[in-house]
Amino acid sequence: MMQATEHQTHADALQTEIYRRMRPSRRLELAVAMQEQTRALMDAGLRRSHPNLTPAERHREIARRILHART
Known about the structure:
elongated; 0% strand; single chain; 3 helices
C-alpha cells in the first residue's frame, strides 16, 4: 500500500473542509452527478468492448457490477 504524501494529505483535508461547508443539498447534487457520470462511463466502455450487447443488457451488466463492487 502506498503512503500518502504530505501534498495528498493536505489536499484530502482541504477537500473534506470544502465538502463540510457545502449545503447538504449541494453535496447530494454532486453525488448524483458523480453516479450518473460513472454509469455513463461504464456504458461507454461496455458499448466499446461488447458492441453486441443491447441497451437492456448493458444496463443489467452495469447494475451487476455496481452491486458486486468492492472497495
